[in-house]
Amino acid sequence: MVRINAVLREEIIEGIDEIAKETGESRSSLLRDAAQRLIEEYRQQKAEEMRRKKTTRAVQIQDRLRKKAGKWDAVAELRKRREMLS
Questions:
Q1: Quick one: CA dihedral 21, 27, 28, 30, positive or negative?
Q2: What is the pTM for the complete model shown?
Q3: C-alpha span between 74 and 80 (Å, rounded)
Q4: What is the pLDDT of residues 16-58, one digit of tens each?
Q5: DSSP 4
Q6: Nearest residue to 35 via CA among 62, 10, 2, 59
Q7: Which whole-number Å values give the CA distances from 74 to 58, 62, 66, 82, 85, in the listed order?
Q8: Contact at 8 Å (CB) between 33 and 23?
Q9: What span, in angstroms and rounded, lies between the C-alpha atoms of 43 and 46?
Q10: Are the C-beta atoms of residues 16 and 30 closer than 8 Å to each other?
Q11: Kind and range of the H or E element at 31?
């Protein structure tokens, strides 16, 4: 582990100390857990943002294809192909 120094407002330290006293954990332990949760939350948000961007891009592509295809009826085309193969 690596030791760090951080400057925190007094009310934050008081809150951490209150939780530490109630839970029987140390300040360091609480801060490690909080930092780990922050990292996990950040990564989840980044992954969700990436999913949203990919979804938006896919919808844009579909919209362009739909516009390009016009009134093309895919179901009718599939039925026609099936009839040709039977």
A1: positive
A2: 0.68
A3: 10
A4: 999 999 999 999 999 999 999 999 999 999 999 999 999 999 9
A5: -
A6: 2
A7: 19, 14, 11, 12, 17
A8: no
A9: 5
A10: yes
A11: helix 27-69
